[in-house]
């Protein structure tokens, strides 16, 4: 079904208003991983709910309970549900997105205040935390609602929304809610859903739109080494006591080698190597080493072979070291022996890996390696959160609709990609609802999600809004089974 011209014109003529709305959203620092910002995640839930309401969506805020973070008991931000349309002759699409963001501080190296949308007039780039991940795409759906409400046009499909505020911190509480809700059958908010669409990832490069049919899973660990009762003076205690930081660095250096090989026995080995046909798939994608170098901002690829690089992101597990809590990191030369340090690292998982079969290998390996150190300190390994990997059937009508919509908006066919990141709820929806899930990204590969100077190009925001709307029209054109 051709997307109506008045919808497409509306998106073009309301560009500035849409950017203004994104600016309002970016100004709310809804950092889910920082207890000090929890009230902002709640504010962002209210902002989003009021946006949906004003365009005729029936909404509900779902209390997801409480959880503990940094030893503090906190209320989880609510899930924001929405429902519009109940026409039995139309398909029903469930749209998921998240309104929380990763932490960001100017001192991390941002060129702009992270919680203020800054528009570069020359390039059209919209800088700000969450602009691409995931406030821009979430507001893309709101823009589609805005257009239809204002133009008094019926939507081509029934829509259900499920937006969460804890995605960047393990989606706590959401799986339990979805599973309990689905059990309600006919009374469930998700009853009658034909397919799920998520816009929360990125094109592979800066040129070619993409449809994404796979995600890596994740297992996130915290390894705590404790020793003295308090921080010590290194001049007084150095070479007299076992130092927690020394033990931790020794352990962390045994997790992954500089070439990216995971050193925990059994983890890399779980994944079967690709055959020639699969390698060809990666060779044929529109991607160059330069694309990685541009988005990473340096010439630091692990290999010069494009297929190996792409497989590293899409079909291999990876282990990344993220940080050490409790370590001295400030200016100056403090001569401290930290009493307790916690190393944080995560493993991105691919089939057949799951947190269930990888966690025991990681925990046993760390305990065995710690025993080899002969240290009198103590160790505790904790899995902070996890999610399974997901791979979808991309020959489904929902992907076909997205393919046609992409060609209509961008005049080019999309890349079919697997994403290196994780959105654990994807698999929950796929399994609990038994329907196809499509990832339809709005942003580009160089958006810098989770990084400094995160941005969304104005053209991606505007064309992306058209893409989301066109996808709904293409789905609407298909017959309801
Ligand atoms: N856009 C999806 C995304 O960024 N997901 C996060 C999820 C996550 C898991 N643990 C912490 N965050 C990702 O890092 O892939
Ligand atoms: Zn995201
Ligand atoms: Zn993210």
Write a brief structural summary.
This protein has 481 residues and is an alpha+beta fold. It has helices at 5-13, 15-26, 38-54, 135-150, 174-183, 234-237, 244-252, 276-283, 289-296, 306-314, 355-373, 397-410, 425-433, 458-477, and strands at residues 58-62, 66-69, 72-75, 79-84, 92-98, 118-119, 125-127, 158-164, 195-198, 210-215, 217-226, 232-233, 318-325, 336-337, 340-349, 378-387, 390-391, 415-419, 436-439, 455-457. The protein folds into two domains: 5-216 and 389-477, Aminopeptidase, CATH 3.40.630.10; 219-271 and 316-387, 2-Layer Sandwich (Alpha-Beta Plaits), CATH 3.30.70.
Structure in words:
It is a single chain. The protein has two domains: 5-216 and 389-477, Zn peptidases (Aminopeptidase), CATH 3.40.630.10; 219-271 and 316-387, Alpha-Beta Plaits, CATH 3.30.70. 34% of the residues lie in helices and 22% in strands. The protein has 14 helices and 20 strands. Helix 8 packs across helix 10 (306-314).
Residue share in β-strands: 15-25%
- Whole-number total of structural domains: 2
Please state the average pLDDT score: 96
Name given to the CATH architecture of the largest domain:
3-Layer(aba) Sandwich
Please state the overall shape, judged from the principal axes of the Cα atoms.
globular
The CATH H-level superfamily of the largest domain is: Zn peptidases
User: What is the β-strand count?
Assistant: 20
Q: How many strands, what sense, and barrel or not for the largest sheet?
A: 6 strands, mixed
Contiguous helical run count:
14
Low-confidence stretches: none
Strand order of the largest sheet: 1-4-8-5-9-19
Ligands, ions, cofactors: ligand LNQNZP67, zinc ion
What share of residues is helical? 25-40%
Distance between the termini: 17 Å
Cα gyration radius (Å): 23 Å
CATH fold description of the largest domain: Aminopeptidase
The structure class reads alpha+beta
The CATH class designation of the largest domain is Alpha Beta
